[in-house]
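Progress narrative, Year 2. Work on J domain-containing protein from Linnemannia hyalina advanced from sequence curation to structure prediction during this period.
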Amino acid sequence: MDDPYEDRSMPADTGNGNYGADDLIDLENMKPPEIDYYAVLNLSKTASEDDIKDSYKRLSRIFHPDKHSDPALKEAAETKFHVINKAFEVLSNPQLRTAYDEYGEEGLNTKWEVGHRVKTAQELREEYSRLAREKREMELESLVRNKNDITINVDATRVFKNQEIMSPFGGIAFAKTSRGSILDPLKRAEIMQLYMKNSFETQFGPRTQFIVGGQMTSRSGMSGGNVVGTIRHAFSDKLNVELGSSLLKPRVGVLKATYSIDPLTFITGTAQVRNFKGPAPLVMTFGRRITKGATGYMTYRTGEWAIGSWGPVLERRRDFSSMALGVSSQDDNRAYQVEVQTGLMQSHLSLDHTWTLDSATKVRVGGSLSTTAGINASIGGDRKITEHTKVGLAVEVGLSGGVAFNIKVKRLGQSLTIPIVLAAEFNPKLAFWATVVPICAVTAIDIGYVKPKRRKERAEKIQELRAVHADFIANQKKEAQEAIEILRESTDHKTRHEQEKDGLVILEATYGNLDAAPELGLSADVTIAVQALVNNSQLTMPGGHSKNHILGFYDPCLGEKKQLRIKYEFQRRLHQVVVADQASVAAPVRSLAGLTTTITYNN
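Result:
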């Protein structure tokens, strides 16, 4: 369930004051939020044309400058009326509204050539998306993207067992343990294999990319490598084709094509050509979205095959056919994949599940049952330690494959992976400690150092943020107070009318950080602003945008989560609601029993 107090205009709090790696505020890039025209008119993003007109007329009757004789109020009303007019101008124009919905103020300031004006909102949205995508692609045309992967395979099996020596009396004896450095056993570890892969990608036109990559492998004093060039082209929104080939021996050519039958269904085919002594091995996948977040797929691999006498005979084939069925799913909170494969030489069942603990941490558990590799299990996780750096740890255990510990570091397209083989055979004791020790160490460092450091940095950055934008905050507060003074007279009349018919009367409304002490000034009194939104004993505040953009509101705690607490009376009964900043409000809420009802809205 989503956090009911989540303020999506600010970095997310992961709970209990513990913040993810990407939750720290970047003062250099963070700017005060742009005005939200939907909030100005107190509308949802699905508001109809009639809703927009009605809201505009209602606000115009209050904020039109001609309605005020006091010079100060007249000047303030002119400013507010200009904002109301701008909001109506944007939201009542289908083209401007679509551009604003997609790209905010930037969409209004960009010239879009979207052709005919009588297109539907959906057609306009699709065309804006296409134009924006092509614009971004053209901007990237001259840029080159670099990816680098390094894998270092380490054999540490001798580190965790006694060293064997030949006995002069025959047989094998174990060397006595000498009192040396605690790091001496680590000297027995050795690098089994080094693998490096590097690729450069550049844009040729809006639909074509060219990738050139090199790879190198070194093992036991022997090494080899190759260079691969690939051209990727999108013939249409439905068809994408890749053509690649190695430039050195052994030469291998790859052709891959993906075709989208409809928005839910796709087909992918891959052919790999090593020589012309037989047909190319093929891999064909058919996939379809079966639920909102899950996709089912079926993959068939031909392996090496023959047409008559053209192709290898059965006894000389190294790759055989197989069929796999699977389901994969991914959303913000978890991801999983289940696959069943049956083949002539190898069949398996595999399961993989990943949980997102917070915005910076993921935990993964997997397992497989194979006719060739037996039973294998793995557990691991990764954590974002800076904005662009992620570290992952995992333990893999196989009944026939031993115990391995993996370390992976990723940063801006660069990846370093270190698989460490701890035991060549299954060792439950080693598997247990290889899992427990890293988890305990990482948890202790995270709780004892990383999270307290982040909390301190966040508090310091929030204070600095408020200092940097002090003038903006003061101006927003001044404008909110001016709006409240403009609303005061009409609201007093509305309140008396509601009291006469035992209708909806706002007794108190507070917006901001409700947990902070009042003397800190991190909350604001918005009673009049909320009462002004009451119509015919009904209060409706659509969600989906921050409430600090509503006329009479402002952000009293920039950089922190905000809530709105409303205490009101309806038909001589007291009620209270507490909502998140971007949650919707609908009142009154009738109580079935008692005189006081407290409601917390989740969305």
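The chain is about 25% helix and 35% strand. Residues 7 and 364 are 28 Å apart (CA to CA).
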